[in-house]
Amino acid sequence: MISREINQNIVLAIGFVAALLILFASAGPLVVVGAGFRGVVMNFGQVQDEILGEGLHWRIPIMQEIKQLSVRVQKTDILAQVGSKDLQEVKLDVAINWHIDPTKVNKVYQNVGDEAQIVNRILNPAVGEVIKAAAAKKNAEEILTKRPELKAEIDANLDDRLLNYGIVLDSVSLLDVQFTREFAEAIEQKQIAEQEAQRAVYIAQKAAREAEAEVNRARGRAEAQRLIQESLTPAVLQNKALETWDGKFPLVYGGGALPFINIDNLISEQANKK
């Protein structure tokens, strides 16, 4: 009986402690601020200058309320439809990485609200306005070909605007750029035309190089013929003739105005050779 009563008392004690912890956690004097959060202290609903960091804190029940806001980096995707300098419709899919300034959590909550209200009241309008202003300075084709410049301008202007609300901009990413179907087809046709023009230039340059090479070869052949002709002097021709002469003189008859070749001897010589 005694042991059973002791066990019952232990169970009751544990239950009492658990109930106290639950009570303290919800409406008691203790509050735990989680990792990556800050606590906004409110006395009867009035935001105080004090900001609670991570960990366990005391508060005055009923009088004080603690609102926890995340100061971690958060991502928000925003799809903006803008007009370019040449009046083309462009859709930009932008990803914004941001976080609340931990030292201004109380002011952010007092002036704007929680994370959802920050996105609806601040991020969406600010991002849309900044993107429209940046895109209006560029043609639709420049928005496509000069994305790093567009991103840098959006990043700089948006950073200044968000800092005024206690929001820190970590990065801006242009995930996608979409044009109307007609303009996309026009860009494609222009790219095809540019490629064909480049190919035509290449073919023309290749033909010019081949023609130049042929001219150079013709010049080389002409120069070789000239050198050969210059080298064939009478002395050279005489030496060539002596090199090929078999040592026999042609048989002719003299005495007249013109010498006559002895045809009979030539025929007999040809017959003997056969």
Strand order of the largest sheet: 3-2-5
Strand segment tally: 10
Kindly report the average pLDDT value: 79
Q: For this structure, what is the CATH homologous superfamily of the largest domain? A: Band 7 domain
Short description:
With 274 residues, the chain is of the alpha+beta class. The chain has 8 helices and 10 strands. The longest helix is centred in the last third of the chain and has 51 residues, at 181-231.
Describe the structure in your own words.
- The protein is α+β, with helices and mostly antiparallel strands.
- The chain has three domains: 2-70, no CATH class; 74-179, Tetrahydropterin Synthase, Chain A (2-Layer Sandwich), CATH 3.30.479; 181-220.
- Helices cover 54% and strands 25% of the residues.
- It is built from eight helices and ten strands.
- The protein has helices at residues 2-26, 105-111, 115-135, 140-145, 147-163, 181-231, 234-244, 263-273, and strands at residues 30-33, 37-43, 46-52, 55-58, 64-70, 74-83, 89-100, 167-179, 252-253, 260-261.
- The strands form four sheets. It has a three-stranded antiparallel beta sheet with strand order 3-2-5, covered by helices on one side. A three-stranded antiparallel beta sheet has the order 6-7-8. A two-stranded antiparallel sheet has the order 1-4.
- Strand 9 and strand 10 (260-261) form a beta hairpin.
- Helix 3 (115-135) crosses helix 5 (147-163).
- The radius of gyration is 50 Å and the shape is elongated.
- The mean pLDDT is 79.
